[in-house]
Fold this sequence. Notes:
By secondary structure, the chain is of the alpha/beta class.
Amino acid sequence: MTHHQSVRSAPDPSFRARSRSTWEVLRRVCRYLIPYKGLATATILCALLSMGASLAFPKLLQWVIDGVISKGRAGLLPAAVLGLLGAFLLRDLFNSLRILLNNTLEQNVIYDMRREVFARLQRLPVDYFDQRASGDLMTRVIEDVNSLERALIDGTEQGSVAVLGVVGVAIIMFVTDPLLGCMALLPLPLLAGGALWYTLTAHRRYRAQREASSAMNTLLLDDLQGVRQIKAFGREPHEDSRFASRAADLRTGTLGIMRAWAVYSPAMAFTGSIGMACVLWVGGGKVINGSLSVGELVGFLFYLGLFYEPIGRLHALNQMLQSARAAGERVFDILDFPVEPDSIHESSLKLPVRGDVVFENVSFEYQAGSSTLDQISFRAAPGEIFALVGPTGAGKSTILNLLPRFYSHKSGSIRLDGHETSTLPLHVLRSQISVVSQESFLFNGTIRENILFGRLEATETELLEAARSANCHEFISRLPNGYDSRVGERGVKLSVGEKQRVTIARALLKNAPILILDEATASVDTATEKLIQEALEHLMANRTSFVIAHRLSTIRRATQILVIQQGRILERGSHEQLIASNGLYSRLSKIQDASSIEEGFKKLDMSAP
């Protein structure tokens, strides 16, 4: 099975995250608060001071009713009203400061989370991305991190304040009137039962909603990147239908959450009002029989409102926590995935390397039990040009992907200048290898930025020299903004040949002693191929080069040619030696002429199964 076949047969890229408990998610995200302990403490303190000012209001109101209005003390009324306004002012001032501190804390935590998730993504092995959709990963980095952060910040601040508020108000109510305090607590078992029901049933709904959002974003990203193919094939209605289906799944998932919340939230609010009714019933009786004043009852009712308000906030936080749990599972799946295996030892490799590459009995498989390479052995001496030919799916690209350790071989040995590549730090190994592939990828920036990606510290003179050697300086100079012209997403503003020459300039600027060319001239016309071939000759000079060729004419001067089929080396030798051997390569050269190597193998009926 080929690599591409294994990718196509992979599971849905919107893969299901491993289930984690709410407490596990909370415990892990709380560590993001450690660098900001002072900021988090100040936020909670402001929230508590704001709540304290709110708690003073009922007592002040009780005094205004019983001590001022009921007794006709008009002279104290202005001071009483000012006292009430002062309580409101302190509440809102501390709340304003809390919002400022909370937003600062929130943005710092989001920044740290995103940085850590992105840094982890950069260090995951290539096969991780083979099995996942880019849109799904984008959803995790952007939307899921946001959802996780909101639960962390709001859960820390509002949760702490709400719990303290409930306890504090409960104490005040029992001190004020124990009987009314008992009446206020009557609905608590029902509130706890409702919260338990919601917690136990919400997770599956939130996980389904997050996965539906990821699937929709995945399709959106695919369609934006493939808009030219959609238009070329007239598939706009088809893609409209597909997107509508994904959007409908997201709508269904979101509505499922909202329906549950539409039952849960009002039910909890009504349950809280039962306590209010009980307090009013019993307290009203006490006012009538004279054992409680009107001001005391009004003040108690205000405290009751302050008691149930944080309980309602805890219910809302519970909803947020269930959403964060689903998001946290998806974020932690990235953070928990093993990074690329790297050497823990200092490298003894002398740099720059000479470029002596040895494969010895190397085997590899993308999926267990399905061999892709079997006992591959060869040696490329420094400065040699090694060419690989074979039908589609033979394993040519896989061989070259093992050298920079994009994948790890199953068995055998791969050595660079006598050192096992598995013992070399990845940054050391890959710094000695340049890759130019058939699909020339450019970042959505300027031509200058794309070429300098090869060596960020290169001078302007070195940049221009690389561009001239890659035969791209002339067309770049004709652009309105020259090297500062933007190439568009994936280099869409440049032709295929222009993009390829820019990638060759990037490889030239890197100046690595080992070069991998994966069908670098496969997708261009003959005139452009000549320009690219000239650029490649500059690039291959004095380098150990590995070439997967599109046409036999491009590999005639190779030091050694390997004929690969079904993961094995069938023939090896120079062009002249293989022609003289009258084997597969010789037969291929007689029928191929100007057509592609792949076409030649098809004519020979030698395609890999």
